[in-house]
Amino acid sequence: MNKLYFGSNLKMYKTVADTVAYLRELAQRTADIDRKEVQLFILPSYTALESAAANTDQACIKLGAQNMCWEDQGQFTGEISPVMLEEFGIRFVMIGHSERRHVFGEADTEENKKVRHALKHSFTTLLCIGETAEEKEFGISTEVLRTQLKIGLYGVDVKDAANLWVAYEPVWSIGVNGIPASVDYAESMHYEIKKCLREIFGEAADEIPVLYGGSVNLGNANDLIVQPSVDGLYVGRAAWQAEQFERLIRNAKAAYEEKRKTAD
Ligand code: PEP
Questions:
Q1: Which of helix, strand or coil describes residue 211?
Q2: Alpha carbon of residue 165 to chain centroid
Q3: DSSP sequence for 22-71
Q4: Residue 173 gets which letter from DSSP?
Q5: How far is the CA of 261 from the centre of ligand 1 (A)?
Q6: What's this model's pTM, rounded to 2 decimal places?
Q7: Helix or strand holding residue 252 (H, E)
Q8: Quick one: pLDDT at residue 205?
């Protein structure tokens, strides 16, 4: 995979005004980076999506929603449907973030319904998976990831693989109390994920980007991005200031290019 993916989920941190200012600054700072080489994406809060879309060229920064319902409309108080996202020009959604699973109790079967519905709308669909610290301790990380993939992607047609992205975000590595995964551990899990995706989709799996997320920062981004099974970085805290995110992207891109040069 030649393109590198860099993105951030803004969670419930930025207001509409903050989001628009952040996106403007990020767009300006990264304007010279070739979008054929780098796919940049940001997931604002629902309330900021309309203004974000009105103020962003999505050819430069793809915008997405942090979650979505598995129906177009109905008795689903508090939910947002793909039809509503499309009204804002949003055609990209994240499903199954660790906080959806572990704070709001979503199960793999629900993630599956959402994934299938997003793909039915031809949305770019980013499925997040990751094991807890306890599951890692029991030595079942691979089994957990395989289960999340096999259930989460159950019934997905191979032709829709082109709209799928996967993020590996170990639960124990995310957020303020997170411990970054070692580079070797991240690579070995990414390898297993890619193997499982190939079992599900055959050759079409080779086009599915697999991103690493969980305490990515300026200190570890370069080592992670040069791993053979890591296609991109999904960054939280270290991306929420445009200047810092720009630096992380430029450094990681340079490290990746250097690695390719020495490999040739
Ligand atoms: C996340 O919450 O998905 C995440 C990657 O956060 P952080 O980088 O802050 O650990």
A1: strand
A2: 7
A3: HHHHHHHHTTTS-TTTEEEEEE--HHHHHHHHHT--TTTSEE-BS---SS
A4: G
A5: 30
A6: 0.97
A7: helix 242-263
A8: 98
